Amino acid sequence: MAGEFFIQPKTYDINNSYKVIVKSNTRITPPHARDDVHEIIFEIHDPSFSYVEGQSIGVLAPPPYDFGADHHMRLYSIASTRKGEHGHKEEVAVCVQRCFYVDAISGERYPGKCSNYVCDLNVGDEVTITGPYGRHFLIPRDNEANILMVASGTGIAPFRAFIKHIFEEEDDWKGKVRLFYQADTGLDLLYMNEVKDDIKHHYLQSTFKAVEALSSNSSGESADALVHKLEENAADVWELIQHPKTHVYVAGMRNASAGVDEALSHIAKSEEAWMEKKRELFQEGRWAEHLYDR
């Protein structure tokens, strides 16, 4: 995902590591888009490596390290299906936004170590990855389940994998599939823009609907756009929320989760009513989040 923060090795087990080769590194936002986002495909020739949609891999950034840790690891959601990128089992794609941060004391702007390392990789480079991680953000096995996905920024990566698996690899998915995607402009809609439009290929599926929540102002604040789009589709969203076979997934910037809570509190007529329903979804294993800060 796009937000840049370091994960200490004690947080995740990094003993299960793999040496992989960069198969390709492609910018998937147009040159004139605000964000510089890359899709990197790694080639993994180790038969023990396997994953399913919704899981993540860790990338270990090489030295020098600024903070004295043995490793700096960054988690990135896998954007490929379990069958591999383009059906090649040995290939796995991640979606990475080039990030920078501003020192709170000096005010100086610094490049995020991991995101810039990954975005600057060349074809043929060797990289160390770990994982996969995450067992809570997985597609339900029941093909009659409804799936409601809310994404912002590079939070679209796991949902790209979900959608490709459901419509390209499953025989007959009967449940409804809904995607609400928050971005600043149409240029920033990853996998749905002029450079790469994997998700748009499935717009004609009878059970699939995608709603683009784009910022309507020059400041690039798109959180309100997500609230508005959810509320514009209140009947469809609330019907899904009420259905006992609906699973809800939220991925991306933390304000996407806040936007979901705000919109659904309005739709449910009160914050208390929505929180009660959200608690029910969570307790039944039908609510999952992957959130990060920029």
| Overall shape | globular
Structural class: alpha/beta
Strand order of the largest sheet: 4-3-8-1-2-5
Mean pLDDT: 88
Summed up, the domain count is: 2
CATH superfamily annotation of the largest domain? Nucleotide-binding domain of ferredoxin-NADP reductase (FNR) module
> How is the main sheet built?
6 strands, antiparallel
The CATH topology of the largest domain is what?
Answer: Rossmann fold
Number of strands: 13
Q: Can you summarize this structure?
A:
By secondary structure, this protein is of the alpha/beta class.
Structure description:
By secondary structure, this protein is α/β, with parallel strands linked by helices. The chain folds into 2 domains: 17-131, Elongation Factor Tu (Ef-tu), domain 3 (Beta Barrel), CATH 2.40.30.10; 146-292, Rossmann fold. 23% of the residues lie in helices and 29% in strands. It is built from 6 helices and 13 strands. It has helices at residues 113-119, 156-169, 223-232, 234-242, 254-267, 271-283; strands at residues 17-27, 37-43, 56-61, 72-77, 91-97, 100-102, 109-111, 126-133, 146-152, 177-183, 208-214, 246-253, 287-292. It is globular and about 55 Å long. Residues 1-10 have low confidence and may be disordered.
